[in-house]
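PROTEIN DESIGN WORKSHEET
SECTION A - STRUCTURE
LENGTH: 164
TOKENS:
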């Protein structure tokens, strides 16, 4: 069910906005129940739309196997884009292009330090709450279930049409 829980969290954190609607879509390269490739569309209360695309098979037939990770937040005021392959982290808005410091992965030492501070203080301005974590997990699980259900429905329709 890894359909981008951290990316969902990040969108909510950056936008400071709850998710009001979402839809999950999947693609398969094998018979495993969960999708090998997921698209998750998130609509936020602030009007922003986020697309999360997670794949474990994006280059499954490529000679040069690689892992791609692109993250885009598309809002009414601009676009935030993180591209691990191109080592880019930028925002483009009405004021122009803003380049941010790129990191290939999250700062685990910084995250654990903040977690330590949160345990001592009882809260954190940088980390998600347990309630937010449960909400994000529910979105990821429901979106994955939706993709699996849609696959089953499509297969059943194909079988029915094939018999007609």
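SECTION B - SEQUENCE
RESIDUE ASSIGNMENT:
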């Amino acid at each position: 069910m890894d359909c981008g829980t951290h990316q969902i969290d990040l969108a909510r954190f950056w936008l400071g906005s709850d998710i009001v609607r979402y839809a999950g879509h999947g693609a398969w390269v094998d018979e495993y129940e969960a999708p090998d490739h997921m698209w998750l569309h998130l609509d936020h209360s602030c009007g922003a739309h986020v697309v999360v695309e997670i794949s474990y098979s994006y280059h499954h037939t490529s000679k040069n196997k690689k892992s791609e990770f692109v993250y885009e937040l598309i809002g009414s005021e601009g676009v935030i884009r993180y591209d691990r392959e191109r080592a880019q982290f930028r925002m483009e808005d009405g004021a122009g292009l803003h380049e941010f410091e790129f990191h290939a992965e999250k700062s685990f030492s910084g995250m654990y330090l903040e977690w330590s501070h949160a345990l001592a203080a009882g809260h954190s301005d940088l980390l998600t709450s347990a309630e937010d974590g449960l909400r994000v997990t529910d979105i990821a699980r429901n979106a994955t279930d939706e993709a699996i259900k849609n696959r089953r429905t499509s297969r059943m329709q194909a079988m029915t049409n094939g018999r007609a």
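SECTION C - NOTES
The radius of gyration is 18 Å.
The longest strand covers residues 19-27.
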